[in-house]
Amino acid sequence: MRGLALISLAAVSWGTTGSVTTLLVARAGATPLVIGAARMVVGAAVLLALARAAAPLRIDRADRWRCLALGVCMAGYQAAYFSAVTMTGIAIAALISICSAPLLIAVLAAVTLGERVTARVAVALALGVAGIALLIVGPLTAADLSPRFLAGVGLALTAGLGYALYVVIAKATLARTAPLPQAGATFGVAALVLAPLLAGPDAARQIALGWPWFLYLGAVTTAAAYAIYTIGLRDVPASVAGIVSLLEPLTATLLGVALFGERLGAAGAAGAVLLFAGLGVLLSRESA
């Protein structure tokens, strides 16, 4: 239950990212790639500081290549996700990427980690994915099926794959490497990959105008959220963690309704009910 609580808290924190991104675009003229890069750089600095304060920054030799791969996956996720935002919109990009992740995680975890997908987990997964699908449809009145929109959907799915690979590889490293050193090393690599995007006066101008929000994205939704997520992942199967992460798009959608006047609609409300039902099935499994 502790692991589920930590992962749930991390997912809710991630769900605030879309609202903060909307504010950054509106008030600082921030571009998606700059937002993703700045988030990684701030998050990596905080995570490395936390890791060094808690214990020696030691990565098991067998896991060093995994941390490198994790960093590349996380950098790819950021680039694909924030690029998809400009093509499909923030809500659609978040919902598609996170909706696809549990399915991909369940398949990858079964193949690479030998995790068994039980009937109860399969039911929770089906309810969660159906709920997210309705949340995608609910706020929309029509879908623009232009080539640009479809390319954005492809990038959102790519982001979902990057996140799924991150979860499965991270789960494998936690058998030997402590959570904070693993997270610090991972985001250090991701920051190095994305840092060149922050070069130039335009990126500096965006950061100067929106620095409190950039700090929030890096310190809270990245460093703090991924730290507690990684700690929780030690006690929770990767496939279950993927289902609980569906709280992220639910949070994003509810914030959109409450803060930005977006309409959830009847389908969206039904999706929220299905998502909570899936989480209830999952929690009943853990408490049984």
Could you characterize the architecture of this molecule?
- By secondary structure, this protein is mostly helical.
- It has one domain.
- It is built from twelve helices and no strands.
- The longest helix is centred in the C-terminal third of the chain and has 33 residues.
- The chain starts with a helix and ends with a helix.
- The mean pLDDT is 83.
Architecture blueprint of SSEs:
Blueprint: H1 2-15, H2 17-28, H3 32-54, H4 64-88, H5 90-113, H6 119-137, H7 147-173, H8 179-194, H9 201-233, H10 238-244, H11 247-260, H12 265-287
Helix pairs in contact: 1-9, 1-11, 2-9, 3-4, 3-8, 3-9, 4-5, 4-7, 4-8, 5-6, 5-7, 5-10, 5-11, 6-12, 8-9
Number of domains: 1
How is the biggest beta sheet arranged?
A: none
Work out the helix count: 12
Helical content stands at over 70%
- How many beta-strand segments? 0
Enumerate the spans where pLDDT stays under 50 for 5 or more consecutive residues.
none
Task: Using the alpha-carbon principal axes, give the shape.
Answer: globular
Note the beta-strand portion.
under 5%
Instruction: Please tell me how large the radius of gyration is.
Output: 18 Å
Mean pLDDT figure: 83
State the end-to-end CA separation.
11 Å
Query: Would you list the SSEs in sequence order as H and E?
Result: HHHHHHHHHHHH
Q: Class by helix and strand content?
A: mainly alpha
